[in-house]
Amino acid sequence: MLKIHGYAGSINVRKVLWTCMELGLPFERIDWGGGTRSVTDPDFLKLNPVGMIPVLEDAGQLFWESNSIVRYLAAREGRDDLLPFAPAERAQVEKWMDWQVSDFNNTWRYVFQATVRKNPNFQDEQQIAVSWNAFCSAVQVLDREFARTGAYIAGPAFTCADIVIGLSVHRWRSIPLERPHLQAIERYYDRLCEREGFRVYGRDGGL
Q1: In the chain, which ranges are continuous DSSP H helix?
Q2: 55-58 and 27-30 as β-strands: parallel, antiparallel, unpaired?
Q3: Are β-strands 27-30 and 61-64 bridged in parallel, bridged antiparallel, or unpaired?
Q4: Closest among 173, 182, 179, 177 to 206, alpha carbons compared
Q5: How far apart are CA 106 and CA 176, in angstroms?
Q6: Angle between helices 125-149 and 160-174 in degrees, nearest 10
Q7: Which helix (H) or strand (E) holds 182?
Q8: How far apart are CA 165 and CA 158, in angstroms?
Q9: Which of 14, 47, 84, 168 sits 20 to 30 Å CA-CA off 133?
Q10: Neighbours of 114 (CB within 10 A)
């Protein structure tokens, strides 16, 4: 059975949990981080030398970096619908996954820590405003794409990219600040809520 190391509230762990549900894969989840066991523990560093969750353990092999794990699992199961085999089609999915984990994530870190986590180290009002504006601008990019595709981020079909993008959209909706009404985003969110994996690990799984 697959082992997923990381606490259930982590957005990056939830990417992997949702992927497993989409694929029908049983797993055992083992708490690390988030107030459970420290990721600086030598036992965890044996799993991941950079000390970050999640870690996937599969038949003695260890994988880390959440988006890489999502891709690995889809490829492992031969799910061409979630991660196309054809290079050009696959790149259309992977470009959004790469953007999510780099540019998109960087927009929301400060405002999320400030307003949801209530982290005392993230309470500069100017930086909160800058982060929130950047987060909203990034979501508006997605809104235009969803309006264009009429469905999901890489086209008419649900893919791995929607697992990682969808959880970040859920996080945007959790920020307790005034936000623009984005019709295509709302339709996309409703579409995600039709999927059990998102209901469990997105909508109801945490922020």
Answers
A1: 11-23, 42-47, 66-76, 87-99, 105-115, 125-149, 160-174, 183-192, 196-198
A2: unpaired
A3: unpaired
A4: 173
A5: 18
A6: 140
A7: none
A8: 11
A9: 14
A10: 22
Which two tokens mark 157?
């079909």
Predicted local confidence at residue 75, as pLDDT: 98
Which residue has tokens 């307003």? 115
**Which one-letter amino acid corresponds to residue 124?**
D
The pTM score is 0.96
**Residue 207: per-residue pLDDT:** 85
Q: Which of 59, 75, 62, 60 lies closest to 23, judged by CA?
A: 75
Distance of alpha carbon 84 from the chain centroid: 19
The set of residues, in sequence order, having a beta carbon less than 8 Å from that of 111 and lying 6+ positions away, is 128, 131, 132, 135, 175, 177
Tokens standing for residue 13: 């762990």
Spatial neighbors of 35 by CB under 8 A, at least 6 apart, are 7
Contact call for residues 31 and 38 (beta carbons, < 8 A): no
pLDDT by 10-residue block (mean), the chain, 207 residues: 96 98 98 96 98 97 98 98 98 98 96 96 98 98 97 98 98 96 98 98 93
Rounded Cα distance, 110 and 143, in Å: 22
d(CA 78, CA 67): 17
d(CA 139, CA 168): 9
